[in-house]
Amino acid sequence: MSPLPQDKNGCPYLQLAPMEGVGDRSFRKAMASIGGFDEAVRDFLRVPTNAHVRSLAKVYVASELSPIPLAAQIMGSDPHSMANMAVELVKKGALRIDVNCGCPSNTVTGNGAGSSLLKDPNILHTVAKAVVEAVSIPVTVKMRSGYEDISLFEENVLAAEATGVSYITLHPRTKVDGYGPPARWDLIARAKSLLKIPLVGNGDILTVKDALTMLETTKCDGLMIGRGSIINPFLFQEIRAHYAGIPYEPKWEDLLGFLETFIRDTPESFSTRLRLNKLKQLLGFMFRANPELLQKRQSVLSSSYTDPEAFLAFALPLLKENWRSYLTV
After folding, report:
1. Tell me, what DSSP letter sits at residue 58?
2. pLDDT tens per residue, the chain (329 residues)?
3. Residue 257: inside a domain, yes or no?
4. Residues designated catalytic
5. Is the residue at 21 inside a domain?
6. CA-CA distance, 56 to 177, in Å (whole number)?
7. What is the CA radius of gyration of the chain?
8. What are the backbone dihedrals phi and psi of residue 3, each rounded to the nearest 5 degrees, phi first?
């Protein structure tokens, strides 16, 4: 199978990762206001055994980021239910369905889903194969390097490929690793050497240099970026500008527009406290962008403001002081 498409300047295919929590609709819409990525993936839809898939699929809106495609991600362990959900999502306009084999949450793995599928390559194969056979659109797998360890790494990678998926996205940490140790990019390189289908690399891409290093050392076909895009929402545009050989200089107003979109698209049903917590979570990531901002991060997170507007009036001047220094060249 041919590699994932590149743009006219040779920039690899760039994807906004699905992220439970902060990576919801409001964040995706805010990221789309800046752009730079080719596709986004919706945070996973849980598919319990014997689920009423039609009602579950209602939350997926294929045109959410139009014209940027939004892939659907599903997570479960019952092949029949997963296949039925895939069919329903195609009816909803999905152009690609991703099978989650990586979520490390205990509430997920306790039900045999997410990264639990990595305990047995045969189960992973059965679940993903059921989805592939149920629909005519591309099906992909997003996986970690293992559950407790990487002893089944190669078996899982090859089991996923054998289902007929279009490509695999690899986050090279185990379930037990969580998000702690550095991602093992050497495992992306190993998977690439094993596979005949494209491979997307994911994990610890925080700067343009990180993106270029991953591509060079692993030979992966595309990049998926999650937390790096929260810390620096301009990261996709920076990577694309690097390949175009042109400077990219976002303005402070661009960042304000990002935040305004995030606030505007936060559901009105959310309480004031929940809105405030979402803002704190988002700003908490952005204040990790450089040493100067990091010094101020705790004061932002521990601030006693109870009103989102008052909180922003306090936090934004602190962010503005050093925000440019995290823009990579």
Report:
1. G
2. 446 999 999 999 999 999 887 889 999 999 999 999 999 999 999 998 877 888 889 999 999 999 999 999 999 999 999 999 999 999 999 999 999 999 888 778 777 889 999 999 999 999 999 999 999 999 999 999 999 999 999 999 999 999 999 999 999 999 999 888 899 999 999 999 999 999 999 999 999 999 999 999 999 999 999 999 999 999 999 999 999 999 888 889 999 999 999 999 998 889 999 999 999 999 999 999 889 999 999 999 999 999 999 999 999 999 998 887 554 43
3. no
4. 103
5. yes
6. 30
7. 20
8. -65, 165
Task: Measure the CA–CA gap between 279 and 293, rounded to whole angstroms.
Answer: 16
Single-letter residue type at 155: E
Strand 13-16 to strand 39-41: parallel, antiparallel, or no bridges (unpaired)? parallel
Does residue 249 belong to any structural domain of this protein? no
DSSP letters for 285-326 = HHTTSSHHHHHHHHHHHT----SHHHHHHHHHHHHHHHGGGG
Token pair, residue 307, equals 């009103």
Contacts of 8 (CB under 8 A, 6+ apart): none
Domain range for residue 284? 266-326
Please state at what angle helix 235-244 crosses helix 208-218, rounded to 10 degrees. 70
Sign of CA dihedral 164, 168, 174, 178: negative
Separation of CA 20 from chain center = 9
Residues in the chain: 329
Token pair for residue 211?
A: 């993106």
Terminal CA-CA length for the chain: 33
Q: What is the CATH number of the domain that holds 52?
A: 3.20.20.70
- What is the H or E stretch that residue 121 is in? helix 121-134
Containing 208, the helix (H) or strand (E) segment is helix 208-218
